[in-house]
Amino acid sequence: DPGYPGMVPGHVAQTVYYAPFKKLTEADLEGFWVLEYRWPNGCTPYGLMFCELALTWAMQYASHHSPLPPTNGYDMRVAGTHLFGSELALDSEAILEARDQRLAQRLPQFVDDFDRIWTQEIDSLMVANRLIESYETSGRSPKEMGDYLVYTREHVRWSWERHFELMYLLLINHAGFYDLCTELSIPHADVATFLQGYDSRISQGDRALWQMVDLVREKDLTQWFTSTETYSDLLTRMRTAGGEAAHWTNAFDQFLDEWGWRTETVADPLSRSWIEDPAPVLQSIGTCLVSGERPDFDAKRKAVEDDRENALEAARSRLSRAEQREFDQTLDSCRKANFLWWNEDHNFYIDYRTAIPMRKAALGLGQALDLADPQDTVFCFYPELLALARGETRWNELSAQVGERKDYYWSWRERRHQIPKFLGVPPASLTDPILTELDGFTPAFLETLKTEGSATTLKGMPASRGSATGPARVLQGADDIHQIQTGEILVCEGTTPSWTPAFTKIAGCLTDQGGTLSHAAIVGREYGIPCVVAMGNATARIKTGDTLALDGTT
């Protein structure tokens, strides 16, 4: 496939660290490539800037600066509009040895000082986020919007450099604990259990959403949500009605100011934030009201904490005193720098918010250019937007191609279910901790990719204990989670933070990809939802409405 109409290499390879982000070629098929489940809708031309800066540049940057001994981060490709990734091998023994030495020096200090480090990072991120989010785009000239466009690009690069540098260090530290537990014959699934049950900004946001549900019931406003056919103008109608309805919208505005800086999909400039379009969250509130059930967050948290302490007690009871001392010391390092907790907490500051200024800059430029549909700008590549802002290109030179690109995007989006989950021959093993620990590409999983499996029984990696039986809900992306009904079993390629609200309603979760440190696994354990990850092709073999029996324990 030639790619987007008018696409040339310079459109997506502006910034290169070790290897550039580019189109998939036939020669690439000699390697092993993984379909990126975090972007199930594919990428617009403007959205490919994120792939260049975050998934390619920032990961390669972080592999050097962390430092990450085994690999040079990710090598990324785009096929049609969809993303494939592969680990970027580090072949130099000299560099490998140098990174080992640097890591041995840096990691202990990083772990001991992690609380202060992360607090400082939060402060820096929030200052930058609030500054860039508060920029007023109305009435700006194209040149001013071009300056803002450059600023948002640098913000994406800087934010995701922070993201992956911290992620790699936390994963490496966690891997050390996992290796020790393996030596001590402690089951793989127990390792994550030892570190669960700590409050994050994401879990706080979930509780805040349910407080808005509670307030609807308290003010006797349920009918506003259960009898409406459209949520797009619900807030306007409630404000106009006055009284308790208007008072509730004031509380909802405060909720959005704190928790509305998020999009339904990660880093997609087509995706509107809750601030821009609150309809999805209002619809979720309506679904929660119809279900009639409210999660007992305190009871679930207590159960998760008890499960953690019981698992620790059982594990320690099987160890000698010398083994207990080593176990406790290594566990303490993971508690100080807890990847499971951080992998949820950081989403509030980085993953949720990255696309918001990206989209704002593109739409602001469209308004400055007086386009009929300002959103058409997301179907331009970043260099084209910059040229438009600087007067080097006129819109009528691009408008025909933009129309072709929109058709191209939607045709590939509709074909997502036909895209293979993997390309090339699976290797015996991979070494990048994001691929192995987050995405679940263990040697055992790589081996299963070579076989078809049973027609009625699908196997994967148990990630959150428990069992569930119920109807399947197969979804392509998080923008469809409002379809989920209470008691259904979610089946998807994999989850990101945007899926978290679904875990208050589902009975279980199955994902094509993911490891015991993936989002689905972590949130499943925190909510007491059984979960099986790394199933390979569950989304292709299960249909919505199928009755499923899920076992997340064995």
TrEMBL record:
Pfam family, one: PEP-utilizers
Record-annotated membrane-spanning stretches: none
GO MF annotation: an example: transferase activity, transferring phosphorus-containing groups
InterPro entries: PEP-util_enz_mobile_dom, PEP_Utilizing_Enz, Phosphohistidine_dom_sf
Domain PEP-utilising enzyme mobile: 485-554
Gene3D superfamilies: Phosphohistidine domain (3.50.30.10)
Protein name as it appears in the record: PEP-utilising enzyme mobile domain-containing protein
Gene source species: marine metagenome
Lineage: unclassified sequences, metagenomes, ecological metagenomes
